Fold this sequence. Notes:
Oligomer: single chain
Distance between the termini: 39 Å
Number of domains: 1
Order of helices and strands: HHHEHEHEEHEHHHEHHHE
Strand content: 15-25%
Helix content: 40-55%
Shape: globular
CATH topology: Rossmann fold
Amino acid sequence: MEEVRGLKSKELYPGIFSRHAVAYQRRLDEVMARGEARGRQRVIDVVEARSGMRILDLACGPGNMTRPLAARVAPSGEVVGVDLAPGMIELARSAGIQNARFEVMDIEALAFPDGTFDAAICGHGLQFVPDLPRALGEARRVLKDSGRLVASVPGAPVKDSVRALIDDVIERWLPAAPRVADDQTTRATVGDPDALRQAAIDAGFADARVEQVEEDVRWDSAEHLVSMLMSWWDCACRLEAVAADRREAFRKDALAAVKLEHPGAMTMTGRNLVLVAQK
């Protein structure tokens, strides 16, 4: 893919995720309800939320992970969700989640005093941070002594027939995705279990480990898969660059290609890395 000169991650991602916040919420709610988001679920389990805790949800999106944690810290605890995408925060606030509040905030510059939270989580957000050491350092700073950060990131994709079909259609119809230069070091780090663990240690955490978690996501039909695919950030940003008639042609071609090989339900396997870092 060609690099878009001068484009920065904080110029690209907040807008894309804001414009597609509703579809993102719908897709993630769906897979979480079916127990298929095993990487994110592992984060929720490991953080061990309980009544009275204050938890920070970094890159919280529309609050998909905030909601179950807020229920666990009730009635006296609180979950604070922060995200740089205003559209995500607006959607999260509109959900009326009890024991939770949401703020537009850069996770590289958290507006909280030292030692504010008992724990912090992040569900598939660290890969978008241009300065990972700063973000990890900020997470550590706002944790109380012995506080824990638990974060999931997507691992290397599992190449299967469904993914191969989709990739082929995308390459035929859509321009290259915008590629920013300032998050490449971060992406290399979070994709490597040893490097991710070391980044947490270098940020000042006393101990850290990285778990690998696989998950299978079921799609009921080709229509189901393609409708969700078109709102995934990396596909959505490419679709935004083409005219409406070409977007529709892409949708029809993707639908036909998937239906031909998979006329019914199908499953895609994903990999996750889960960082557990102790202050």
